[in-house]
Amino acid sequence: MNILVCDDDKEILDAITIYLSNEGYKVYKVSNGIEALEIVEENEIHLIIMDIMMPQMDGLRATMKLREKNNIPVIMLSAKSEDTDKIMGLNMGADDYVTKPFNHLELIARVKSQMRRYTTLGSLETKSNVYKTGGLVIDDESKIVTIDGEEVKLTPVQYKILKLLTANAGRVFSIHEIYERVWQETAFNPENTVAVHIRKIREKIEINSKEPKYLKVVWGIGYKVEKF
Question: Which tens digit of pLDDT belongs to each residue from 126-180?
Fold first, then answer.
């Protein structure tokens, strides 16, 4: 498992690296949020330990940017212990919070807890061809879609659209991007085509298609499946 540690304090960075390496993790080290995002783009990272206060790009902004594309677990570090800082970090998308100075055994315990959650319920589950958000589950191996345990019948195109959005739950896709990814061709005025399929999917997966729980429109941008 690969862990990215992001902190501008070299002593803390080196100490955490030693703790994690002793537990068998491969560790990537960076000192600001910009470098962290670059590492995530270029490597398979399973968890991030992110300091809040850093130069160039702080941990809060980096986490917010990270959440635009994926749901890698993030444990935030900060010398501040006020509840407002914890709430802000969690609102930005962090999964857990550790206040400096910390006990290294506590940090390792939190890392292992997040790793367990991630490998059984999070993004790594997509590698076993299962995509899930709330009560919506897509088994890509059997091509079965269920809502709260009830199977939903979709056409091949509807399935591809829903799979794309569910596999990237929380991310907004433009109409052109949806069309080009699903139809595998350049999009020319695809608005009506995509909109019709979206409406049909909603009719099948939503209790009330006019007030959808899962498949949402983001006005002026595109569509997303809500992340729960």
Answer: 445 889 999 999 998 889 999 999 999 999 899 999 999 999 999 999 999 999 9
Question: What's the CA gap between 97 and 119, in Å, rounded?
Answer: 20
Separation of alpha carbons 226 and 224, rounded Å: 6
Distance CA 60, CA 71 (A): 15
Helix (H) or strand (E) holding 70: none
Length of the chain: 228
Is the pLDDT score of 200 beyond 90?
yes
Q: Does residue 88 register a pLDDT over 90?
A: no
CATH of domain 129-225: 1.10.10.10
Rounded Cα distance between 47 and 60, Å, is 16
The CATH homologous superfamily for domain 2-126 is Response regulator (3.40.50.2300)
